[in-house]
Amino acid sequence: MKTSKGGGEIGTVPGRSISVADILLPQGYKIELVAKDLTFPSEVTFDASGNLYVIETGYCYGEVWTEPKLMKIDAAGNKSVIAKGAKNGPWNGVVFHNNNFYVSEGGALEGGKILKISPAGEISTLAENLPSIGDHHTNNLVVKDGYIYFGQGTATNSGVVGPDNASFGWLERRKDFHDIPCGDLVLTGQNYESPNVLTEDPNDKVLTGAFSSFGTQTVPGQVITGRVPCTGAILRVPLDGGKMEMVSWGLRNPFGLAIAPDGKIYTTENAYDDRGSRPVWGAGDVLWEVKQGVWYGWPDFSEGRPVRNDEEFKAPAHHEVAPLIQKLPNEPPKPVAVLGVHSSSNGFDFSTNAQFGYKGEAFIAQFGDMAPGVGKVLSPVGFKVVRVDTETGVIRDFAVNKGKRNGPASWLRSGGLERPVSVKFDPQGQALYVVDFGILKMTRQGPVPQQNTGVIWKISKM
Q1: Are 225 and 219 in contact, with CB atoms under 8 Å apart?
Q2: What is the pLDDT along the chain (462 residues), one digit of tens a residue?
Q3: Residue by residue, what is the 3-state secondary structure of the chain?
Q4: Which residues contact 409 (CB under 8 A, 6 or more apart)?
């Protein structure tokens, strides 16, 4: 790794310094700033002429709402708005196909949607009422064989609604909401006690079971009926709309989605947190190959291993994580690669051009954990772009911030990468565009995102 020889100093974004010299790249690569002053950007795409477009999410964790937008970026970095969305973000994914844009609307308030947007900005809805009003939303999408494939996150951290979901803001809005399996599940009847956050009595307690609304108990052998749309799954819908189908399930938060050069679909899964009524500790994010009809293990497995008897997944302060499912749909497969714990490995793409290098490898944006700014943190995780050999599972850094410590640029007091949320190669595969969400300061009260601090970077060979 070496210091980039990119386009030099770029002045400042309000509240954010920009310096390509603060980013390390492999020998022979350079990085440039393409656009700045973005508010919560999430992904880019290219039209048939190679023009660049970006979406702004319109939402950030912490219940911060702005206006979701699809914008065109010209060669000088100027932005022109193509379409604006409603207060139902985040807009997580965008793809251009057959002269139209397709956008995944997260659906934090009204449920997720798959939108079709014409070049003139006319918006139509292909799918709606997706179960996205919980912790995780309707995520990235790809187009393949006449279908739109997309990731759908779970409502909860590990299958049980608890006080942590109240802190996310949705439990009081939708007291009846919970996770929905794609197929029938037989439960163990394990219930978890927690404070009743829906009452003012500090001594009030409730018991809650898996795949059930807050305060609803389950019993051994109880069958939870599966249906589509479901949570924690890869789903698909025809390009012109129609019947939705389940592709695979048992994924906590399948955020990124990409098609490899050989036509296989892959997803990045954001793994468990150490929170809620059923905390799971030390679970790494995962890169999976998406296989038809396969259950990947959530909420009883992580990285293909059971959380119930693996010491890695049990924090010292917690008891053993009890299983929720009595009869497994199938034995979970082996992951392609296991990424950093809380690295928030999100949007990714595959190199298709030997001229750029690393042909066939997956390049993954790591948004980073929520540690910087809260207490004494020596080495935060993520905040970079890594590449993965899908044959061996070996992970290597590709673009990282310069310095003795890892972390977001603002925390390091540098001008490098802040919160990489996705990457996308241009149509020729000659340049990798990195979408940097912007500054997300962490406080003991929660995340504080800063508007107008998002940027787009471009990495290419020198």
Answers
A1: no
A2: 333 333 333 344 457 899 999 999 999 999 999 999 999 999 999 999 999 999 999 999 878 999 999 999 999 999 999 999 999 999 999 999 999 999 999 999 999 999 999 999 999 999 999 999 999 999 999 999 999 999 999 999 999 999 999 999 999 999 999 999 999 999 999 999 999 999 999 999 999 999 999 999 999 999 999 999 999 999 999 999 999 999 999 999 999 999 999 999 999 999 999 999 999 989 999 999 999 999 999 999 999 999 976 666 666 666 678 999 999 999 999 999 999 999 999 999 999 999 999 999 999 999 999 877 655 556 799 999 999 999 999 999 999 999 989 999 999 999 999 999 999 999 999 999 999 999 998 777 778 899 999 999 999 999
A3: CEECCCCCEEEEECCEEEEHHHEEECCCEEEEEEEEEECCEEEEEECCCCCEEEEECCEECCCEECCCEEEEECCCCCEEEEEECCCCCCEEEEEEECCEEEEEECCCCCCEEEEEECCCCCEEEEEEEECCCCCCCEEEEEEECCEEEEEECCCCCCCCCCHHHHHCCCCCCCCCCCCCCCCCEEECCCEEEEECCCCCCCCCEEEEECCCCCCCCCCCCCEECCCCCCCCEEEEEECCCCCCEEEEECCCCEEEEEECCCCCEEEEECCCCCCCCCCCCCCEEEEEECCCCCECCCCCEECCEECCCCHHHCCCCCCCCCCCECCCCCCCCCCCEEEEECCCEEEEEECCCCCCCCCCCEEEEECCCCCCCCCCCCCCCCCEEEEECCCCCCEEEEEEECCCCCCCHHHHCCCCCCCEEEEEECCCCCEEEEEECCCEEEECCEEEECCCCEEEEEEEEC
A4: 16, 17, 22, 401, 415, 416, 417, 418
| Burial class of residue 353 (count of CB atoms within 10 Å of its CB; 0-12, 13-18, 19+) | middle
pTM > 0.90: yes
